[in-house]
C-alpha cells in the first residue's frame, strides 16, 4: 500500500486504532500479534457482547429496556458488523486506500490541487471532530462510577458476579471494564464510519476532476490531442466507476446494518433523554445528548457523500455536451456520444441493494425515529392514565 503519510490524519489514526485493537491483517504478521489479537478480542468483544445481550434479557420491563439497554445493543450490533467487515475485507480496504492516493487519482493542475487540498482539509477537520466527540461521549459513561449509586455504566448483568455497596471492589472492576470496553467499541465503530466517508469523498473529488477535464476538451484544437485526452478521461471514468462499485461491495453489509438500526437507536436515545431529570443528572444528560449527536452524524456522513457522488455524476453529461464536440472529427464525436449515453445513468450506491446513500434516506431515517418516539411517548402517557385510580 502507499505510504500512510499520503493519507489524511484522521485515516492514519483509524489505521493505528485497527492495529492497536487487533484488527490489522497485514501480510507477514508475527505470531505474537496474532496471539495479542485474540487475547484482546475475546474479553473485550465476544464476552462483552454476550454479557450485554444476557443483561437485556434480565430487564424487568420494556420501559427499562428502551431507556437503559436497547440503544446500546443496537449500536453494538452495528459495530460488530463493521468489525467483521473490516477484519474479513482488510486487504480490500487497503487496496481502496491505496487507490485513493495513487497516481491515477492525483490532481494534474494547480486548480485541481487546490480543490483536492481544500476538500480534504475540511473533511479531515470534520472527521477528527467526529472521532473526538464520539470518544469523549464513550468516556462519559465513567460518570456512573463517581455517582455513588453503584450502577453499572452500560449493562446491569455480568456473569452473575455480585456488585454493590457490599462488593465495592467488584463494582469498581466491572464498571472500569465496561467503560474501557465502550471506549474501544466506540473507536472501532467510528473508525468504520471515517473509512467509508473518506473513500466516498475521494470518489466525489474524482468526479469533480472529470467534469472539469471534459469541459476543457474544447481547448484541445489538435485532433490527436482530442483523441488522446478523451481516451485518457474515459479510462479515468472507468477507474472511478470501479472504485465506487468496490466501496459499495466492501461496505454494503455494514452500512445496511447501520441504516436498519439507526432509526430505533436515535429514537431510544431521545426516549432516554426525555426521561432524565437534567437538573439532577446534568452529566448523564449531556453525555446522552452527545451520543444522540454522534448517532445522527454517523448516518449523515455516508448519506451526504453518497448523495454527492450521485449529484456530481449527473453533471458529467452536460460537461461532455459543453466541450464543443461539433468541432471534433467523426470518430471522436462517436466516442463523445458513447460517453454521454454512458453518463446518462448516474452512479448510485446502495446498502444491501435496498438503502440508497442519499439525503432522502437520511431524512426518512429521522422521520421514522421521530414517529417511533411519538408512539412510545403516547403509549407511556396512556399507560400512566390507566394506572391512576
From TrEMBL:
InterPro entries: 7tm6_olfct_rcpt. It comes from the Eukaryota. It is a multi-pass membrane protein. It is found in: Cell membrane; Membrane. Keywords: Membrane, Olfaction, Receptor, Sensory transduction, Transducer, Transmembrane, Transmembrane helix. GO terms for molecular function: odorant binding; olfactory receptor activity. Pfam families: 7tm_6 (PF02949). The chain crosses the membrane at residues 35-57, 69-88, 125-146. One of its GO terms (biological process) is signal transduction. One of its GO terms (cellular component) is plasma membrane. The keyword Nucleotide-binding does not apply. Interacts with Orco. Complexes exist early in the endomembrane system in olfactory sensory neurons (OSNs), coupling these complexes to the conserved ciliary trafficking pathway. Belongs to the insect chemoreceptor superfamily. Heteromeric odorant receptor channel (TC 1.A.69) family. Or2a subfamily. Odorant receptor which mediates acceptance or avoidance behavior, depending on its substrates. The odorant receptor repertoire encodes a large collection of odor stimuli that vary widely in identity, intensity, and duration. May form a complex with Orco to form odorant-sensing units, providing sensitive and prolonged odorant signaling and calcium permeability. This is Odorant receptor. It comes from Aedes aegypti (Yellowfever mosquito).
